Amino acid sequence: MKEQGPDLIWQAKINNIDSCRNSRIDSVDDEQIYQLDIEISQYAQKVSEIWAICTGGHDKIKSEFKEIKEFSQKERIKPRGGVASLLARSDKKSLDELKAESFPNPPKLKGEIFSYLSLSMDSKLGVHLNGNFSLSSSRLQTENDFLKSDCDNAKWNTYILHEVLPDLHIKLLEYIVKLEEARHLEEGTNFTPHTAKNFWPINKYLTDLYKIYGLNVVRKLGVNEQKFFWTEANGGQFVSLKEARILEEEESDIANILVNLEVPIRVVKLDKDKMGQLDEIVKSKKPKNFPYTPISGKLVCEELQLMRPFKNNNIIRNDGTQDSLFQLLTFIFQDKKSFKHLARLPLVPLSDGSVGKFGGQKIYIGKQKHLDLFPNCRSRLISINLPKDLLEIFSSDEFSK
User: Fold this and answer.
1) pTM of this prediction?
2) Which of 224, 255, 290 is the last residue before a domain boundary?
3) Is the CB of residue 132 less than 8 Å from the CB of residue 80?
4) d(C-alpha 122, C-alpha 152), whole Å
5) CA triple 314-346-366, angle to 5 deg
6) 321 and 187 in one domain?
7) A GO molecular function for this record (predicted)?
8) Helices 323-333 & 297-307, crossing angle to 10 degrees?
9) Residue 300, class by beta-carbon neighbours within 10 Å (0-12 exposed, 13-18 middle, 19+ buried)?
């Protein structure tokens, strides 16, 4: 009886490994971005995966890192690494079927850190990291001493993690945004961006050590004016943090109003945690002028002032009932600092359905009986449909000042 060979339990096949290898050989130091198409067979099940990877490093170590430069020369080690992001995965579709679809459509990834040894460390980041880390021979102490200790090895590892890898990470995000832009062209109005959700470099599970890494990635996104942030303004586009005006995602109605103004404001919706992380960078003053602009009532007024003169006073598109104007005024008036910036802005809802300007002709507060008595004066009376909270503000002495 002929003996049977051993059954295949696990196999991983990288379809485009040769082109990736050749790309890396051509340039070791420069940042290289490439895509890995992987098929994994485990028993009878097959899994298809598509990865985006950026490798490279720093050609020169900056002068302010003198100790790091000396360590590099002494140990003959260079600041190099890589960042890998999982773009798509399926256990039901072949690799060709997965590649034919619009991606990225990233599943959750429990990030790990790799070096030359096979064992990895758990980072809980949304990406895998690899670097020329300086590790002790005993991996039992690595988790504790990898970054925390005050030795030269830990300082070098911190430099790789906080300076080198974030640069590679934002290059990878730049590549992912290009994939997203292509998907936007294909899907049109059905497009839902993944950047600020699935590819945001910080999540709630990170320890302080790896949160610093994530903050450095966000910091570099802002300083480098990377077009990573999605706005629905002007048909939808990715903008830099400097161009973006950040609004809490729960304020979706206000966001829709602001992106549909006569001159749209580039509103980017983020959740409270992400806005808190941006605030954290601003408070650190590293850098001093980090380009983060959260939306407030005062800011809306300042943005509108820059848009003058308007073609007509009804600056909110498709607002026949004035409901959107009421919502916008409610948002603006939450910030009392906005009161001084209202002059000449067409935001006064009038009883004839038109819109007047603050500080223009005299406008009065009236009731239905006044409209009945003076039917030709509707353009001089504030809308009687004004919500109670807005009416109280218009009537207040503080607002009249």
Assistant:
1) 0.89
2) 224
3) yes
4) 22
5) 95
6) no
7) Hsp70 protein binding
8) 120
9) buried
